[in-house]
Each structure stands twice: as structure tokens, then as C-alpha cells.
Amino acid sequence: MLFLVLITSVFSFKLTSQNIFKSGLLLGITASQYDGDGYAGYKKAGLTAGFYSRVKTGDHTHLQLEISYFMKGARKIPDPNKNDLNQYLLDLDYVDIPLLFRMEFEKRHLLAELGSGIGILVRVREENNYLDITGRRPFNRTEIPFHSGLGYYLSNGWEVILRYSYSMFPVRPDRAGKSVWFNRGEFNNSLSFSVRKTFGKKAETI
What we know:
Blueprint: H1 2-16, E1 21-35, E2 44-56, E3 61-76, E4 88-105, E5 110-128, E6 131-132, E7 142-143, E8 145-153, E9 158-167, E10 187-199
Antiparallel strand pairs: 1-2, 1-10, 2-3, 3-4, 4-5, 5-6, 5-7, 5-8, 8-9, 9-10
């Protein structure tokens, strides 16, 4: 409910204020791991693409709302040289809707962002040793991720952003059914690097 109120506030702020309001497109790559599968490393590659709108809230701050398609999951490749024949693949594709607070440091062409949002699961595929096990242990249809990122302004409305995202709540219960302080379930853990283009007059300065 709070998230919906914040989204509504962004659009009403646009309509009722004279502050700068801009929109743009994003395209990037993702690297993910899944905390709870027993494997480590950002070995699952994917893509992200979408659009965003931002409204100026201060001299160097903005609120930004995004809608993007974001590929998450995990991947374990067998390594016969180490006598390791285990294979695992997890595809989790989300429609991601983050709401972010941005602070911009114009003199150094830098920006920082922090926020949360909601992710809606739209596609699942899970394999274990090349056997399709999709649906045996269902995932939650939504997730609430935490986002933080750093970016760099280029010119003419172009910028690049490196972002870290982590599920604030489990996206699936622990396989053993345990829920303790250090083992509350399974979580998405992702990095993304995106190129963004903001449209509009003087887009490169906001």
C-alpha cells in the first residue's frame, strides 16, 4: 500500500508542480546469483530493458520511477576436470518497478541512488542435472527488492549506472523448511550495468 501511495505521489507531483520532469529508456546486462541454491558467484547472465520517469525534488535530488524487464536466476556449469558433474539452471524473469531517490553530484558527473519497489514474476524455468523441475517448489509471485547504485553522466542525456539489488524478503522458502535468523529462505542477488538515455530539453543537466 505504501508503495502505491509513493507511485501516486510521483505522478501527482508532476501534475501539480513546476519542477522538471523527464523520461528515458534503459538497456543493460545483468549478472545474478541465488542465495539458497548452494552455489556461489554471479554466473547467471541476462538482460534488462525498460523506461523511467523522474521528477526534480531539490537542487541535486530526484525521485525516479522505473518499469523494466529484469532477468535473474542462477547457473551452475559442470566441471569434469574437477570431477564435478552437477548442473543447475534457474531463470527468474521479473517486471521490476523500483522507486528510487537519486542524488547528483554535477561537478564530478556522478550520481547515487537508493530505493525499493516491487518485482512481479512473469517467467520461471528450473533445471537440476538437465532435468526440468520447474514448479516442484513454487516461487512467490512478487518480491520486494532493495536497490542501490552508482552512476556517471556522459553527455546529451546519456548516463551509465551500476546497480546492486537484493530481495528484502525470501522469494521461496528454504528447501528444508527452516526459518532461522541466518537462514530465512532463498533470495535473489543481482548486479546490473545499464546505459540510459534521458529525453527532453537540457536532459544532460538533471
